């Protein structure tokens, strides 16, 4: 199939609903595994997680509130539809991280395996959201903004932000936990950087 054929494809309402639900669900399971391991992460979720660790507040509520200021940038660059989809995705993830612990428990997991799983699950979730014109807000919106405006990959933008956030996280977690956490973040961002290619997959 030629690239021009791909660009004519569009997602319908049911496609978007499935994609956003899938993306939010995969990301929420990744976040729950992350908190189970005591790891930290990057992006807006990482900032919300650090606040949650430091204060004891619910991650879901902190994550939802902290994303609110970023919707303006999303609206300015990508329009109302993108912001609406992102708002739904963030709300879904926030709710799932509150509800799912009642139905999902993790046992013993080696940190390396956990880091890889977290990166893969969250990476798959974010790819689904991106491909359905959505995101999990915050740095994801900034990353997409920069990628569309300059061509600089969204994954690299997020990786730079993650590095700064992990330096702050060293004040709250031991170096080994940070090292395993960073592995998960690298897997996540490499997944996005390699697979989120507008020249390979473009939909309206």
UniProtKB/TrEMBL annotation:
Tell me the PANTHER family matching this sequence. UPF0750 MEMBRANE PROTEIN YITT, UPF0750 MEMBRANE PROTEIN YITT-RELATED
**Location in the cell:** Cell membrane
**UniProt membrane topology term:** Multi-pass membrane protein
InterPro entries (UniProt xref): UPF0750_membrane, YitT
Q: Mind listing the UniProt keywords for this protein, alphabetically?
A: Cell membrane, Membrane, Transmembrane, Transmembrane helix
Q: Which species does the entry assign this protein to?
A: Paracoccus fistulariae
Organism placement in taxonomy: Bacteria, Pseudomonadati, Pseudomonadota, Alphaproteobacteria, Rhodobacterales
Q: What is this protein called?
A: YitT family protein
- The membrane-spanning stretches of this chain are 20-39, 45-70, 82-103, 109-130, 151-172, 178-195
Entries under Pfam families matching the protein: YitT_membrane
């Amino acid at each position: 199939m030629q690239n021009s054929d791909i660009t004519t494809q569009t997602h319908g309402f049911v496609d978007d609903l499935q994609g956003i639900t899938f993306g939010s669900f995969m990301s929420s399971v990744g976040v729950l595994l992350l908190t189970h391991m005591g790891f930290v992460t990057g992006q807006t979720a990482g900032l919300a997680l650090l606040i949650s660790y430091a204060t004891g507040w619910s991650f879901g509520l902190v994550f939802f509130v902290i994303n609110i200021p970023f919707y303006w940038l999303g609206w300015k660059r990508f329009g109302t539809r993108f912001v609406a989809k992102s708002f739904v995705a963030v709300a879904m993830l926030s709710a799932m991280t509150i509800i799912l612990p009642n139905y999902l428990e993790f046992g013993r997991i080696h940190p390396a395996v956990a880091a890889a799983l977290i990166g893969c699950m969250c990476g798959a979730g974010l790819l689904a959201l991106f491909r359905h014109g959505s995101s999990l807000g915050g740095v994801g919106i900034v990353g997409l903004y920069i990628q569309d405006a300059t061509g600089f990959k969204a994954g690299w933008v997020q990786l730079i932000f993650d590095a700064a956030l992990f330096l702050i996280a060293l004040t709250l977690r031991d170096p080994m936990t940070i090292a395993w956490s960073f592995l998960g973040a690298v897997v996540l961002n490499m997944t996005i950087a390699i697979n989120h290619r507008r020249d390979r997959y473009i939909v309206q």
